Amino acid sequence: MAALIAHTAWKQRLDQAIDAGIIDPPPSVIALDNQCVFGKWLYSETIPTSVKQLSEYQEVRSIHAQFHKLTAEIAMLAVIGDKAK
To answer: Rounded to 10 degrees, what is the CA torsion of 9, 14, 20, 21?
Structure first.
């Protein structure tokens, strides 16, 4: 639940950053899916290897990585001032 709240807060911050044209952290950091609270947990050693081998786990990782990739792309467009996209 904390990860969901954190990502919702991120969306709100991104919306505000787009309006202001200032993105912090930069898109290159936003793209890193292992630096947010959820990503740190997702890639941590606390998750057993047997779980990491499950297709469901791999799907969650993939979706999470895609979220960060798309968010970074949106942030980059905001930085260059292309709010229409």
So the answer is: 160
In this predicted structure, which of 14-18, 26-30, 53-57, 72-76 has the lowest mean pLDDT?
A: 14-18
Cα separation, 76 vs 18, whole angstroms: 10
Gap between the Cα atoms of 14 and 72, Å rounded = 10
pLDDT in tens, 1-38: 676 787 788 778 778 877 777 788 888 999 999 998 88
C-alpha of 25 from chain center: 12
pTM: 0.76
Q: Would you say residue 11 lies in a domain?
A: yes
Q: Is residue 84 part of a domain?
A: no
Into how many domains does the chain fold?
Answer: 1
Among 76, 64, 1, 77, CA closest to 36: 64
